[in-house]
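name: query_chain
kind: protein
chains: 1
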Amino acid sequence: MKYFLTSACVLASFFLFAQTPPSKEFTISGNVKNGKAGDKIYLELGGVQPVKVVDSTTLNDKKAFTLKRTELDEGTVYQLNIAKRQRVILLVEGGENLSVEADGVEKGKIVVTGSKNNEYYQRITAMNQAMADKSKKWQEEYAAAEQKKDAKKIAAIQQQFEAESQNVVNTVKKLLPEMGTSLVALFATNFLNPEAHLPTLDSLARRFEAERPNMKQAQVFVGNVKRMRGVPVGDVAPEIALKNPNDTLVSLSSLRGKYVLIDFWASWCGPCRQENPNVVRVYNKFKDKGFTIYSVSLDKDKAPWLKAIEKDGLTWTNHVSDLKYWQSVAAQSYGVNGIPATFLLDKEGRVIAKNLRGEELEKKLEEVLK
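structure:
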């Protein structure tokens, strides 16, 4: 029986890193039912280890507090730590006046108002918690039914679980259009199976790309969706235009008229380096028959990239990289999740085969270049 993701598990995949662009002030004010004057209130970056405190204050004699800050990006997830007894997740995009009502005890009640982001977040996490509670009960019933070899009961529990899981997914899909290109929309995508709901995720990613291209949280999501989308055989290969070791832009489209092997690799990739002798052999065999290689490196540093090119004898001239590691724009566009990864293009730039190596690549080239 499957286990539904807990809120903490979902959040772990959602929290991201430091941000930059436009700055907007926001205010967090609140009351702590079981607090006392002098209790410390910490504002921390959510999901960051070790914990990073970005601001703090204390409760006054009315058990109230106020924090004012400037949001330096279009979206950050914060954690409000109330006297180290209760923690509140806050989704901030800037410009909000957030109000927090908290019990101030572990597992106490929390109500956050003042932004749609946090209202939706509370709604989704409440639904998730209800599902987690039901799952715990079903797991106990499932274990008991297995002991009794009660196949009918097992089937009924599985059916209940699947129906409730589908209900959660349907609710999230229904809410996504309302959420638009917000921080909470990114959080909500964690409840959707990428394989089953790729069209929904793809549609949202394209909206973020068009409407909020500078939002760092969204950039990671968009990149992941691009990887899931990939480039199927039969499609025209997306354009790549990156700099070569001499800092000159080299576009993939400039090689039209030749059969081209796009080879994603890196100096730090053991399997790539092991495959390079085969790539060199194939290049030398077919380079005078209308074939070339366009190598895209996922290196982070220029020196090891250049050293590997020389050491492995990669003598073709079309070596490019943006030195962004797995955040490579080209790798995202082509759905590259692991390397080496290759795409063989015909003279019109259409993908005719993927991930061919060694003898398979040689046979394919013999077939198309005969």
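note: The CA atoms of residues 15 and 47 lie 5 Å apart.
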